[in-house]
Structures are given as structure tokens and as C-alpha cells.
Fold:
Amino acid sequence: QVQLVESGGGLVQAGGSLRLSCAASGSISRVNAMGWYRQAPGKQRELVASITSSGNTNYADSVKGRFTISRDNAIDTVYLLMNSLKPEDTAVYYCNADLSLYSGSYLRRRGDYWGQGTQVTVSS
Structure:
């Protein structure tokens, strides 16, 4: 059974920082691209940042210059360092992973594995 376990969410004052972590586990052959999405009340889930297996990154315009995504391939973990947090960043943050899994003599690749979500609340 594949799991994406997130941690690091919480309550922080505007201008503060948080670091989110997401660790993938299971019968994983390879962790391909990984990313962070968020969903605020009354809004659709949106991409915050992503990172490819080769290390290329992409950020939503609203977080460029403030957030940094990184990964540790040795432990199948992706991080999101969030600096200069704003009340508008308040949302449930979800980890996403494109995984190649062992399935008998084959590999199964799917890009829609999700963590359970972690709440980030920025006060003002």
C-alpha cells in the first residue's frame, strides 16, 4: 500500500515561515515528479509548486520568491519551505507524487497519488 505522509503544517503569524514535508512509502520503484497543491475554503485546488526528477522547479505566480520546493531522493521526500507567509496562503496543503510502482513483473506509473493534507493557517 502506497502512502504519502505530510507534516509541518500549523498556525503562524503573517511574515513567518513554515516547512512542510511529505514522505512517500510503499512498493515504489521510482519517485518521479512531486508537487504541492493547496485548497482554500470556497476555492478550487491549485498547484503551488512542483519539482521534476531532474530537479527542475515550477511555482505559482502567487508564491514565487517566497516558497522553495526541494527533494531528498534518498528518502523519497519532498519539502516546501514557505517564507513571508500571508493570510492568503491559508489553506489545506496536499502533497502529490507521480510514482512508478512494482506490479508483478511490470511497473505501474500514476501521477495522482495524494497525501491526506495538512492545514496551514496564517494569522493577521
Remarks:
- The mean pLDDT is 96.
- The chain is about 0% helix and 65% strand.
